[in-house]
Amino acid sequence: MRPGEERPVEGGACDGVSELELLKLRAAERIDEAAERLGALSRAIWSKPELAYQEHHAHGVLTRFFECEPPAASWTVQPHYQLATAFRAEWELPGVPAVPRPLHLGFLCEYDALPGIGHACGHNLIAEVGAAAALGVKGAMEGLRGPPPPVKVTVLGTPAEEDGGGKIDLIEAGAFKNLDVVFMAHPSQENAAYLPDVAEHDMTVKYHGKASHAAAYPWEGVNALDAAVLAYSNLSVLRQQMKPTWRVHGIIKNGGVKPNIIPSYSELIYYFRAPSMRELAVLTKKAEDCFKAAALATGCTVEIKGGAHDYYNVLPNKSLWKAYIENGEKLGIEFISEDAVSNGSSGSTDFGNVSFVVPGIHPYFYIGSEALNHTEQYTEAAGSQEAQFYALRTAKALAMTALDVIFKPELLEGIREDFKLKLQEEEFLNRAE
Q1: 103 and 180 Cβ atoms separated by less than 8 Å
Q2: Number of other CB atoms surrounding residue 11 within 10 Å
Q3: Which residues on neighbouring strands pair with residue 182, listed in sequence order?
Q4: Which are the contacts of 281, defined by CB distance < 8 A and separation ≥ 6?
Q5: What CATH class has 199-306?
Q6: All structural domains of the chain with their residue ranges
Q7: CA–CA separation, 370 vs 378, rounded Å?
Q8: CATH of 19-197+314-431, one of 3.40.630.10, 3.30.450.40, 3.40.50.10320, 3.40.50.150
Q9: Which keywords annotate this record (predicted)?
Q10: What is the largest CA-CA distance in the chain?
Q11: Residues 365, 187: contact at Cβ < 8 Å?
């Protein structure tokens, strides 16, 4: 096969439309055929929001969806895969030789919610898009005539994105081993093939002092609340020397029990974000110094504990972006400019850790609302009927991009090369002084 040549697809072209484009149309049709079931899946998850690692209802809804997806038993489903609320569903065409190793594509579903405001980040739609895109690829491949290429499709249910990092747990358990490319998409206020999601580290800080009567003999006490307030102020002062791309935000979770008792205990929770793991290490060291200084000033002892997992920055993959944008534009998706991408705000996701172990794409998509994520208004939008059009259109773009990966060897080569170069660049940055 010559460089730049598509893998041949049996069945012939029609009216000037290439075989691959016909497969893409079939993928979109398959998603439309399943639209009612997919919408019900999303609404079932949205209507019963569950927090990180507690998504038992969502887990059951998703595993039943794949277990019952026609034709019967077409997906091999593993409930409670490595984690109580994770799952794995796999499909490959029967009779396809296992050698050479199949091209292994992964589609990721998230489904945890936020405390108090439910699916204010639209993870019900992420689950729907991941499932829909996988169905689209499966439907297209089942329509092939002649010997199909060896391809395996895996859907991974990844809990606890909002708190804990379920994808990182699954990475450590080997769930991403042998995956070649992974796909997922996240609801937003605009359409972007990539946003620069940043690295994140969280800390819990506990100050221990000594209780005493606040009016009769306050000099006998050691005020843990004072330590928390000083730490908060220290970080506020530090902001003047922070880079514009750094973010620090936190709360005082415990500040005492009664005004006439010198607080013997206080607790803070902070999140720290930076564009790379190297910069994040610099920022967190400065923050730790602020916390320790507050303990020294007040005479308290301090415990500083990091979260179970750091979220890495998402590595971009331009080859995947370009393919996704090309397919999305065919469907009428209007993407924000590259300048808007570079200058836009972003958060953090455990998909960043995935992007360090396997090439992938994590685009953002508009859902028909100008509401901002993590608000009650976005919760309402994520459960609306209007969001369905945008979610399924995004799923079609992902499925079409996956088909490009299957049938365009030069694209897969470019994806792997981009991944390799970005890893090398990140390693260099992390080693730099």
Answers
A1: yes
A2: 13
A3: 106, 360
A4: none
A5: alpha beta
A6: 19-197+314-431, 199-306
A7: 8
A8: 3.40.630.10
A9: Carboxypeptidase, Hydrolase, Protease
A10: 92
A11: yes
Q: Pairing between strand 199-208 and 87-92? A: unpaired
199-306 and 19-197+314-431 share a CATH fold: no
One digit per residue, the tens of pLDDT, for the chain of length 433 reads 333 445 555 444 555 569 999 999 999 999 999 999 999 999 999 999 999 999 999 999 999 999 998 876 799 999 999 999 999 999 998 877 666 789 999 999 999 999 999 999 999 999 999 999 999 999 999 988 777 889 999 999 999 999 999 999 999 999 999 999 999 999 999 999 999 999 999 999 999 999 999 999 999 999 999 999 999 999 999 999 999 999 999 999 999 999 999 999 999 999 999 999 999 999 999 999 999 999 999 999 999 999 889 999 999 999 999 999 999 999 999 999 988 888 776 789 999 999 999 999 999 999 999 999 999 999 999 999 999 999 999 999 999 999 999 999 999 999 999 999 999 988 755 654 3
DSSP annotation string for 63-121: HHHHHTSTTTT-SEEEET-SSTT-EEEEEE-TT--S-SPPEEEEEEE----BTTTBSTT
Cα 204 from Cα 67, distance rounded (Å): 41
Q: Is 357 left (phi over 0), alpha (psi -120 to 50) or beta?
A: alpha
Q: Please name the residue that has the structure tokens 């794409």.
A: 361
Pairing between β-strand 360-361 and β-strand 181-183 as defined by DSSP bridges: parallel
Instruction: Please list, in sequence order, all residues whose beta carbon lies within 8 angstroms of the beta carbon of residue 168, skipping any fewer than 6 positions away.
Output: 309, 311, 350, 353
The answer to whether 374 and 188 are in contact (CB under 8 A) is: no
176, 106 Cβ separation under 8 angstroms = yes
Q: Tell me if 75 sits within 8 A of 67, measured CB to CB.
A: yes
- Least Cα distance to 401 among 412, 390, 392, 391 occurs for 412
Rounded-to-integer distance, Cα 63 and Cα 61, Å: 6
What is the 3-class SS of 345-367, one letter each residue?
CCCCCCHHHHCCCCCEECCEEEC
Query: What is the distance between the alpha carbons of residues 413 and 52, in angstroms, rounded to a whole number?
Result: 36
- Which residue matches tokens 């005479």? 299
- The span from the CA of 406 to the CA of 210, in Å, is 65
